[in-house]
Amino acid sequence: MVQVFNEIAPRRFRESFGRYYEDFEVGDIYEHRPGRTISETDNTWFTLLTMNTHPMHFDAEYAKHSEFKRPIVCSPLTVALLVGMSVTDVSQKAIANLGWESIKLTHPVFAGDTLYAASTVRGKRESASRKNAGIVTVYTAGTNQDGIEVCTFDRTMLIARRGTLPQE
């Protein structure tokens, strides 16, 4: 995470996070911290908020009879947490998310699991339509507390160039 303190007046500083387009290099890996432990309440609220009615996510008695023997975390919550963990490192200076590709859920996630994420810069190119930004693609992998990979995806973002955002 790139953290800068800009002096905006004498002895007054504004904290700034994130990377500009110029700061990304293909092959760089950013480990996102802190991790995030998922609670049963997180899973239940997210599942119901998104109107996911599959009982595997919120009905312990139903889930007891499944191969997992307990509720599993709703997969969009897993993706959302991993994206959120990556924001200060890869998209704090984004103008827009352009897409996610190849989302893979490689291992079940349960309440009580702690997730960690790391992103690898896979691509970087000038924007053909916006001189104030470039396009960056990262591969993000999430693991649980045991180091088991639980989710991976590619994410592409339009990232501002240095000096082009308001309040810098």
Question: What does it look like?
Answer:
There is one protein chain. It contains 3 helices and 7 strands. It has 168 residues and is α+β, with helices and mostly antiparallel strands. It has a single domain, classed as Hotdog Thioesterase (Thiol Ester Dehydrase, Chain A). A 5-stranded antiparallel beta sheet has the order 3-5-6-7-4, with helices on one face. Strands 1-2 form a two-stranded antiparallel sheet. The chain is elongated and about 60 Å long. The model has no long low-confidence stretch (mean pLDDT 91).
Write the layout of secondary structure elements.
Blueprint: E1 3-9, E2 12-17, E3 29-37, H1 40-49, H2 60-64, H3 75-91, E4 94-105, E5 114-126, E6 133-143, E7 149-160
Q: Which strand order does the major sheet show?
A: 3-5-6-7-4
Uncertain runs:
none
How many strands appear in the DSSP assignment? 7
Question: Which percent range fits the helix content?
Answer: 10-25%
Estimated share of beta-strand residues: 35-45%
| Global morphology | elongated
What is the CATH topology descriptor?
A: Thiol Ester Dehydrase, Chain A
Task: Summarize the biggest pleated sheet.
Answer: 5 strands, antiparallel
Secondary-structure content class: alpha+beta
Oligomeric assembly = single chain
Q: Domains counted in the coordinates: how many?
A: 1
Total helical segments: 3
Radius of gyration (CA) equals 19 Å
Please state the second-level CATH architecture.
Roll
CATH superfamily name? Hotdog Thioesterase
Structure keywords:
single chain; 3 helices; two-stranded antiparallel sheet; elongated
